[in-house]
Design goal:
single chain; mainly alpha; 2 strands; elongated
């Protein structure tokens, strides 16, 4: 098959901008994605994994429950609190 043949599948896909790959019976086998669509898909997978993370859900719930006004906890105090809670996990 020559490079410029009209039967060249790669050329046909490029020319028509086809988004689907089908078998000989016309059944869809795959969907072609642009790089941007693929990156978005990977982001969605990361978001789904994060939504299943119990520790992250707990931290988000704690952050949402904290009062918006008033004095914020210093980063140093947060680290001390985190070290203490992790020490309990290790010993328990």
């Amino acid at each position: 098959m020559s490079e410029h043949s009209t039967d060249d599948p790669a050329r046909t896909l490029r020319e028509r901008g086809a988004r689907y790959v089908v078998d000989t019976r016309g059944q869809t086998l795959a969907v072609l994605l642009t790089i941007e669509e693929y990156e978005h898909y990977l982001d969605l997978l990361d978001d789904e994994a994060d939504s299943q993370d119990a520790e992250l859900a707990t931290r988000l719930a704690e952050a949402a429950a904290r009062p918006r006004g008033g004095e914020r906890q210093s980063f140093r105090d947060y680290l001390r609190q985190r070290e203490a809670s992790r020490a309990d996990e290790i010993q328990g």
